[in-house]
Write a structure and sequence with these properties.
The complex is a heterodimer of chains A (543) and B (362). Chain A has helices at 9-38, 47-74, 82-88, 91-108, 114-123, 134-145, 147-158, 162-170, 175-186, 188-203, 207-213, 221-230, 236-262, 278-282, 284-311, 327-335, 338-370, 376-384, 391-404, 413-437, 441-449, 454-482, 488-491, 499-508, 512-542. Chain A is mainly alpha-helical and 543 residues long. Chain A has a single domain (8-31, 46-268, 279-539), classed as Orthogonal Bundle (MetI-like fold). The longest helix of chain B has 18 residues, at 182-199. Chain B is elongated and about 75 Å long. The two termini of chain B are 35 Å apart. In chain B, the strands form five sheets. Chain B has a six-stranded mixed beta sheet with strand order 7-8-9-3-10-11, with helices on both faces. Chain B has a five-stranded antiparallel beta sheet with strand order 2-1-4-5-6, covered by helices on one side. In chain B, strand 18 and strand 19 form a beta hairpin. The chains are: A mainly alpha (543), B alpha+beta (362).
Amino acid sequence: MILPRSSRPETVLALLVSGIVAVLVLPPLLAVVFAGMGAGFAPLRQPQVILNTLFFGLATTACALLIGGALALALLPGVPGRGILERLVVMPLYLTPLLTAMGWNWLASPHSGLLNLVLHAVFGPWATINAVSLGGVVLVSALALAPLPYLLISDALRAFDPALLEAGRVHGAAPNLVFRRIVLPLLLPAGLASAVLLCVQSIGLFSVPAVLGIPAGFHVATTEIFQLLENYPPQIPEATAWGVLLLGTSALLTLAQAALLRRRSFVTITGKAFRPGARIARARLARAVLAWIYVALATVLPLIALFWAASSTFVTANPKLMRFTLRHFSFVLFTYPKTWLAAGNSVVLGALTAIVVCLLGLAVSWVVLRGRGSGRGALDQLSMVPLTMPAMVFALGLLWVYVRVPLPIYGTVAILLIAYATHYLPFGVRTTSAALRQLHPELEEAARVSGASWLRTMRRITLPLIQPTVLAAWILLFVMAMQEVSSSILLYTSHSIVLSVAVFDLWENGNQSDVAALGFVQLAASFLVVTVVLGVRQRRGLA
Amino acid sequence: MTTLESLRAVRRAVSVDALSVSHGPIRAVRDVTFAAQPGEVVTLLGPSGCGKTTTLRAIAGLEFPQQGRITIDGRTVFDAGRGVNLPPEQRGLAMVFQSYAIWPHMTVFENVAFSLRARRIARAELASTVQRSLDLVGLGALGERPATRLSGGQQQRVALARSIAGDPGVILLDEPLSNLDAQLRLTMRAEFKALQRRLGLTAIYVTHDQEEALVLSDRIVVMRDGVIEQVGTPAELHQAPHSRFVAEFLGVRNILPVVGAEAGQATVVLPNGTRLTTRGPIPDGPACVCFRPISVRLSPRPEPGAHPAELVGATYLGDLMQYDLRAGDMAICARGLPRGDLTEGTPVFWSVPPEACFLVTA
């Protein structure tokens, strides 16, 4: 990095931030690559798992993209209940893939699923929905991941200049043609970004294949890594070889996306609201129904199943056998020894992760957007690397590094904090840089010229102005970190167990009702912290 | 150096010496040298991309120049040779930004008080200083208003109040009026000029508007492609631009290429053979002859020394009429009071007094 000669605080910050990001990202990445290369070609002995992973990734991406894109178009202005629907369709992000998968297991396992019991009673035994299957894994994953493309594509739609559509109409194109020839091509970058993100997310997804795939004999790379490490002795080199495979695929996808988008430039942003064409406005009711169906499938039904499983004596739909009880809640709250330890760890980790990611993300975006050194582009890209690294692969790399490094990190919550902070860093950078971009640099420069030091300018001008965005990011990060499974499952020990791992642990032991109760505890803990944070903010806002 | 010159050098408020700023491969400012005396308004004038704003930002400490030296009130704030580049907050300046940069999360009062708080001024003095600054820009009653509830002109005034509150040695202004509508721009221009004279402010003012520059400045620095094209008082620049670029930029409408000159005299030959007597001297190399529309004398009849042309357009401008003339390939623009003896599409005869014809390098 070429730096200005004067050693101003900005310069120190740039060096510090680059150093931290490099230390967080590079060692685990390099460890996975080198260790995995050394392990030979273990995955090649199981071509079926490779094919499964690819099929799972592609099918989930296609389904989730379809669902998310349809939701984004369905929720354009004019649809009744848009405000509440916009919030409800992103609920799966909070519910987590793990709980969604468990919910669907209780809803649609072939013999005891709630929906199937109802269907059997009404239509007879031929009417069965089976979630514990290849199709189930793909569809449930797609339901759980659909908010991601929804958010990206609806952002792109929001930034659309309505004049682009109006120009199409004025020049004689029917609404249909405008949609096909103008809307869809302009959504291409957001669609492509969504597809790549979904591919990377789904091949790195562990919880849904573990819950719905393993019992059906459907194995993918992440479940393979998990089982290789569960074995005694753990087969770290083979697991790492799978990690390299996932990493390589993700990296290829990301590079392909960059190469595809480099050839075209899209500037559609003028900041006005999107006013939809007549045809989109006409199908209002159908659009609302579509969104409500998604909400029911992705959130309401799994939550009902979760509640039902947690509060009935045993899992049945037969009204004569059904008894409601608080036994399972009482078990997880007072008897099960891991609950409070895990809850404490989860809340602390969630809060710390969110703070670290917000601060580090802000520092990175500030250096990249406002700094002067010529290494800024490199820092930006380095901070985005975790986006291409599935959480489980990153955890493998961390294991490899910190087992060897003589620091008291392995086996503590610290290693989980490192894993979470690195994994969510791209999210922190993206959100804070979006906020900083909207802040005219002259607002900061005016403070500097008025005699405020860099630090005072940050404290008095920059931070207060972007505080709403940072708080929103903090909340989402907290909730996401509270539910992280894929890397936690490799890095936890009995002292550093977290709620999501405890849930999975109970699941593996087959305590279905207790799992559901603990899942509720997990949701309640997130909800409680978020409510408190928002409440404190509101009170301070009034004061 | 005479005593007077050395005295001036000491009293110099801002001096910029051989400044060069590059943005990556782009050399935004090259070898720029100028100075502002105390109480003087110096304007950096030029089209967008000429380096005027970069120069201003370098004075403020918001750029990292590659070469040169900048002193403010005799203190070196930037010196490439010695590796000195003071951060903005240590330069004792104030700046009015193009976007106003009014902090939206503060009240008007807090915006103006910011620089005083940063300099740890006592509370009692702070309140009275802020109030005085707000009174000076006519916003005395709006101190408690949130900064987001201000009109464009009010924001401009807050920015001005903020910049004078800290009693800075020098105020830098970056196209402060360009975001206002035409009417308000005239009002604010007059107010700023009055305030500047009253407080004896030293100001460096960046604009691309030649009229603004002529009205406000004691001296104008015309910039082009990162270098200084000409420096002078408004009168000097207006009456004797050196180059075609400066003449164009200062709104000279008639700029005609010179193809020949008659030795010894200041008479030049235009492409269509017309001979014009100018006030001279003829510069080296390719030259153009310039005259303002208001200097052109028109007549419907041939007169001695007048040149024939066709009147192709007469446009009503308000107080004046604009007459567009064509003689072969040559277009000439004249302005004057409306008159009844000139008709569109008829021949017309024009002449320019030699003292109104000046020569510039092409």
